[in-house]
Amino acid sequence: MLAAAWLFVSPGCSHLQDTPEYQSVGNLVSKIPGVGTSDLQMHAVRSSKTVIVRRIAIMPVIAEPDKVSGELEPGATETVTAELYARATLLGGWTVVPQEDVETALQQMPPTNAGNLDQNALQLGRKLAVDGVIYGAVHRYRERVGYDYAAQTPAAVSFTLNFVDEKSGQVIWTAQFSREQKALSQNVLDLPNFIANTGRWVRAEDLAEQGAQEALVNLQNKVTIESAVQGQY
Length: 233
Prior knowledge:
There is one protein chain. The protein is α/β, with parallel strands linked by helices. The chain has one domain (39-225): ABC-type transport auxiliary lipoprotein component (Rossmann fold), CATH 3.40.50. It is built from seven helices and eleven strands. The protein has helices at residues 2-8, 20-30, 76-91, 99-106, 117-128, 191-196, 204-222, and strands spanning 40-44, 52-53, 55-58, 62-63, 95-96, 132-142, 145-147, 150-153, 156-165, 170-180, 224-225. The strands form three sheets. Strands 1, 3, 4, 5, 6, 9 and 10 form a seven-stranded mixed sheet that branches. A two-stranded parallel sheet has the order 2-11. The chain is globular. The N and C termini lie far apart (52 Å). The relative contact order is 0.22. Mean pLDDT is 79; it is low at 1-19, 21-37, 146-151, 183-192 and 194-198.
């Protein structure tokens, strides 16, 4: 199985995941116990599906380094926030408030920190007349040291997200994403990600993008998404 995987890994395989060979290997790997587990852990309240979401805002995530590594490089919060906004916009279904409007509203509020994070998210949502706000914190953001196929230190990203329902004022969904890329020799169970990345050592931004995508898809599956109509929020 590993030999088959190596055959498919090369810099020229830009559409690797679309090939029958990749799908075949992926199906085989998925049958191994413990393989395919996600780096995303989430929780949603039972009534989350009754929440109708048409319009959301994304509040810039804050820095909250974990106590173990404390690794949070400059630009970490900005990168994760940008990925959340980009992924949420591309997913569609809901309307995402432009980040310029979010920043303008935040200027009228106390600076956000760990102590007032929940309160500010709720207040922001009311100011922007949205159904809910996505917000959270980055706990780890370490950039790769080295090159695509020869990294000395792998990238690592960890962040927590929340979604507050403006109508009830309750946090109805939380998610934590944590991923550190490892060599296949260190973790054979990471074969699907290894193949998807064509054997590359990815950058922290790539991990942030993957985490944002997984989290937002999960959120959309937990609530009821309805497209906003003109003049209705």
